[in-house]
Amino acid sequence: xxxxxxRKKIVSNGLYQRKIDWSRVIGSDPFWCTNWTFxxxxxxxxxxxxxxxYHGYQHSIHYYIDDKNIQDFKLIFDFDxxxxxxxxxxxxxxxxxxxxxxxxxxGRSYPKHFVKKSASPSKERQLEYIDLEIDSYERKLRYxxxxxxxxxx
Length: 153
Known about the structure:
By secondary structure, the protein is an alpha+beta fold. Helix content is 25%, strand content 24%. It contains three helices and eight strands; from the N terminus they run αββββββαββα. Strands 4-3-2-1-5 form a five-stranded antiparallel β-sheet, with no helix packed on it. The longest helix is centred in the last third of the chain and has 30 residues. The radius of gyration is 22 Å and the shape is elongated. It starts with a helix and ends with a helix.
């Protein structure tokens, strides 16, 4: 049974994380069709945490939440407070302002990237990224010049 006090703590549009429950793992890979990130489904008489891989508990690992197991789930973020961005933009934000999570059937192979809506890209990270790009182009230019010179000889 989930008390009203604990029920109010559940963020309806949240993404939650839970440690791997090895008793629920089929085979040796705990991430086979499972992310171990959960989306709450709040019904009138129950709250169910559903693994985000499928978004439906008929196919996913799911937990009926009660006062004993609610502490097993940690809020990662509220989807209302973040926006999904391409990885290139994700890299421009400070660590505390960004999230790389498995929250659909892309699993760990194709995680999604989110940043806080209230955050701005980090100037330091942007400069670091630009410097890396400049270094890459300089190396490519040196390589092409050397290749050209060897052909001219």
